[in-house]
Amino acid sequence: MASSSNLLFLSFFLFLTISQTQAKTFQPKALLLPVTKDSSLLQYTTQIKHRTPLVPIKLTIDVGGNFMWEECEKGYVSSSYRPVSCGSKICKISRSGPCVVKCPPPHVPGCHDDSCNHLSYNAFTRISTLGELATDAVSIQSTDGRSSGPMVLVPRLLFSCTPSTPSLLRGLFSGAKGIAEVGRSLVSLPSLFASAFKFQQILAMCLSSSSQSNGVIIFGDVPYEFQLKKEARGGTKISTFDLYTVMERSTFTAVLKVFMEETKGMTRVPSVQPFQYCISSKNLGSTRVGPPVPTIDLGLHHKSVSWKIFGANSMVQVKDDVLCLGFVDGGLNPRTSVVVGGHQLEDNLLQFDLVKRRLGFTSSFLFMQTNCANFNFTSSV
Known about the structure:
Helix content is about 15%, strand content about 35%. The strands form four sheets. Strands 1, 2, 3, 4, 5, 6, 7, 8, 9, 10, 11, 22, 23 and 24 form a 14-stranded mixed β-sheet that branches. It contains eight helices and 24 strands. The radius of gyration is 22 Å and the shape is globular.
């Protein structure tokens, strides 16, 4: 007899799978989201087409989150919107919160009787609220890893439809309607897309350092091509919500001490918050991978494996002639010892295998005379 957990997974998979007719028409091997760096708040953003008829929705990206949520403002109109019933298998799989037995009429998106609720969380402000668990249509670009392909439709993508709460959107970039969370869970976007199109739960991310050109997130396991020119306390995590790498105080102090010793021949200038060590960039020069400062190696699971951080990712230009070491003191007792922030991720290709729990990385693309803005977004169709 099949176990209850297997039955739950099977029903979840079937619920999210696209129609057989569409699958026969075109079955993508991977999907892509263009990623833009917001110039005002330095957040990483994307836009999806949601609802029926399709409406462009702007979202902030969170690589550590487990669920997509969207503010369902007054006037949300979609013929394909479907609330998820309380007690349904999908509700249980999503590990949602309490159910709404009775919702005051009129019944609109975000308010239905006997509906499953899910907690929507803004990691910037640490504010959360309950939203209605629902499904609706999403259109997204396909890719073969080299260029854009045709748009494909996911008729019933799971998300949390949250009430219009200004405080929940506070801290997000102007125009944002929610957060696209791409972490590791059964209901994060990588898992939902993999289930819908039957490809592996693998996520690749390449963030552009420029707000003028797009980076990319790719869902699925395909060869990647970029055009060339010419939990408990402790551990390490990756975050697009933190602008810069945050370290537990003793770790930060050790890194800072060594870095200062290695750059003692450079001219130190007054620090600029939130940074503690800044130098003059006058007459400093530059290299292919940024300012000519010592390379920082982040040691990983084995002594022979390290993530090299070069000047373009370790230093932050805070003024015309001032560079600061882009690492921040996280205090004595942070929840996570090291949080690798967005600035250190830029122009590095990262691949997350969500099933095997593995991270692959290239270190800086700048060494290869390319960057994350050089993905070919031109459709091959």
